[in-house]
Amino acid sequence: MDRRLPETPRTVDFPRPGDLDENFTAMERAALSEINSKVAAGNSLEAILAFIFEKAQSIIPCDRIGLAFLEEEGRRVVAHYAIARYEPLLLKKGYSAELEGSSLERVLKSGNPRVISDLAQYALAHPRSESTRLLLNEGVRSSMTCPLTVVDRRIGFLFFSSRFPNAYSEREISLHLQVAERLSQAVEKAYRIEQLEASKRAYLEMLGFVSHEIKNPLAALITEGRLLKEGYLGELAEKQAGMVAKMLRKAEYLLDLTREYLDLSRLEEGKLEPSIRKDVDFNKEVLQPALEVALPQFEEAGQHLGQDLDGREILADCDPDLLKIVAVNLLGNASKYGNPGGQAALGLHEEGGLVRCSVWNEGPGFPASERARLFRKFSRLKTPELLARKGSGVGLYTSWWIVRQHGGRIWAESEPGAWARFTFEIPIHPAAPAASGGA
């Protein structure tokens, strides 16, 4: 039985890295300089760490490096990256542990590196340490841990490991400090970018799932409600009919909202790319299906929708399914923001190689000062009359994006207090889709 005392981790209080350069060899300074340049220029966390792993081996014993961040307001340490010269990795990305009461908490508080020269001996003193057991099973025998700091704020840890005991002296610790200081800010920036991207993906997945799951039951509820309201299932008393009408209006609003968010999630995930077809009958394949969706909304509000459609057959190269989304959004807005019982008009014309479609409505309109807010994601006009009417600001953004993908443009005009008109036009034979960007 090995009766040696379990090793106590060694922590060393060093001067800050900037004071140590003159003590390094030319090869060490060159390696640190190259690491510094790569770290400063890198945005990808994986690329930065892979380069450091490759380059640091020339100056620091290194069979494995790992990176962990503090999460949940500093209460948990989560392994974010690991790379080694061997396989398999057992302590890898996603491994997490509570910080409180751990040896890493002491490293964090001291702000100094920690060296464990013999991991097997360390495990005898810390038999419950799962991370130590995993590293031993990988073949690691010594390790060096350095806290990562940004402006006196601890953000995580950088780990160097060797498959040989006693691999790290004070010189290696000094080099480790140099690497850690160069790494901290760049690593935090890249990590935050990755967190934002992961949050965006999760948001879009949730948005698409919830919208899809709500859409079909809502559509069925509205169909059944209309049957009930129109008396197909028996006559309703006036009070009952009024209540059903209120329920329908609320359900139709929610259905419009789910359609908009479902379209947005598809757009953001790159699933709304146009599939251009030749010679699409614009009226038959775009406007008429859109009218089937929108007309009940006008009827419910007692609004009259006039139609000024070019008598000729208008054929265009386009994606009719996507342009139907645009038409439904514009028609829905004309009813939603139009005066109850008021007038609205749908126009379609061909001129100069362009298909132009416009939707006009009587209503509060909007001042010229608010025009810049249109066609921006989640942006709503700030006039009291429009804020009083429910909307998300998503439909116009999606419409703008779809029209741009057809090489066209979309715009709005208004006379405040009187009317508003939204118009889009696309070329009959579009060139390559325009690059999407800010409105």
> Any idea of the CATH class of the largest domain?
Alpha Beta
Number of domains in the coordinates? 2
Q: Averaging pLDDT over every residue, what do you get? A: 81
Helical stretch tally: 11
CATH superfamily of the largest domain: GAF domain
Order of helices and strands: EHHEEEHEHHEEHHEHEEHEEHHEE
Per DSSP, what share of the residues sits in E-state strands of 2 or more residues? 15-25%
Shape descriptor reads: elongated
- What is the name of the CATH architecture of the largest domain? 2-Layer Sandwich
State the end-to-end distance.
Answer: 73 Å
Largest sheet: 7 strands, antiparallel
Radius of gyration: 32 Å
Strand order of the largest sheet: 1-5-6-7-2-3-4
Structural class by secondary-structure content? alpha+beta
Stretches where pLDDT is under 50 for at least 5 consecutive residues are 1-6, 11-20, 434-439
- Tell me the helix content: 40-55%
CATH-defined fold name of the largest domain: Beta-Lactamase
Total strand segments = 14
